[in-house]
Design a protein that fits this description.
about 250 residues; alpha/beta; Metallo-beta-lactamase, Chain A; seven-stranded mixed β-sheet; about 25% helix; globular; binds Uridine-3',5'-cyclic monophosphate; binds zinc ion; Ribonuclease BN (tRNA processing enzyme); metal-binding; Metallo-B-lactamas; RibonucZ/Hydroxyglut_hydro
Length: about 250
């Protein structure tokens, strides 16, 4: 079974030429949205994608470009569709997401918990879960902001979706050489230093067999200045549909 991937956006948190780096992953007739940033509802609208065609949302970490669209999606589910969106999320992120991000705007008569809005499905890292036939995901905790939880996603054992993370060359080598990963979708900060992200320079330093699996996402508005300067790595384009083999 192949996986189709369409990036709602490929921009970094401050990009204005690209929507937030959020993804739609299709397996057979199931669609998972990875992250739902501030611009995600608008990107879905621009692409003519209806909310009821999305079967679940997965949250990698709590930053606006990854969860800033959840209030709108949640309220539309509650007040318009009378349907709770399915939310896959690491158990460590559930309280911070509600207590520090969503409750301010969403708490009111009848709404006092994340469970009033979402059908929350807690996940644990390193524990694979089959969401639907042909779509298995496994959270891998990765470093992003010191003291805050953040997770990358392994899809069907073969596609690694970094979300936001600092450079972890040993992990990337292990995934390609030991776990059989053939595609790495990686955040890419075009300019050093990569304090909380991985830089293009760091990704170019990977061994060839690892580097050639990497596709670049979560990039600055100046991406076009770097086309042709990324070695064997390709930039993922937003809205384009990609098919990755099993
Ligand atoms: O310690 C910090 C925390 C945050 N930031 C910036 O805020 C952004 C939040 O979204 P992001 O994770 O996609 O990217 C982050 C960076 O651009 C930073 O530079 N250093
Ligand atoms: Zn981000
Ligand atoms: Zn982030």
């Amino acid at each position: 079974m192949s996986i189709q991937l369409q990036m709602l956006g490929t921009g970094n948190a401050f990009a204005k030429k690209y929507y937030n780096n959020n993804a739609l992953v299709h397996a057979d007739d199931y669609t998972l949205m990875i992250d739902c940033g501030i611009t995600a509802p608008l990107a879905l609208h621009q692409l003519g994608i209806e909310l009821d065609t999305i079967d679940a949302i997965l949250v990698s970490h709590i930053h606006g470009d990854h969860v800033g669209g959840l209030e709108e999606i949640g309220f539309r589910g509650y007040f318009v569709h009378q349907r709770k969106p399915v939310l896959y999320i690491a158990s460590t992120l559930i309280s911070p997401l509600w207590d520090h991000t969503l409750s301010g705007g969403m708490t009111q008569e009848g709404i006092s918990s994340i469970d009033d809005i979402f059908d929350v499905r807690p996940l644990e890292p390193e524990q694979p879960v089959e969401l639907a036939p042909g779509l298995k995901i496994e959270l891998i905790q990765t470093p992003h902001i010191d003291g805050k939880y953040s997770y990358s996603v392994l899809i069907n054992d073969h596609i690694f979706y970094s979300a936001d993370m600092k450079f972890q060359p040993q992990l990337l080598e292990h995934l390609v050489r030991e776990r059989g990963v053939h595609t790495i979708l990686h955040d890419c900060q075009l300019y050093p230093p990569g304090i909380v992200h991985t830089t293009l320079e760091e990704l170019l330093s990977l061994p060839d067999d690892v580097c050639r699996t990497v596709k670049l996402m979560h990039y600055n508005d100046t991406k076009d200045d770097f086309v042709g300067k990324t070695g064997e790595m390709e930039f993922i384009e937003q809205h384009k549909m990609y098919t990755f083999p099993e």
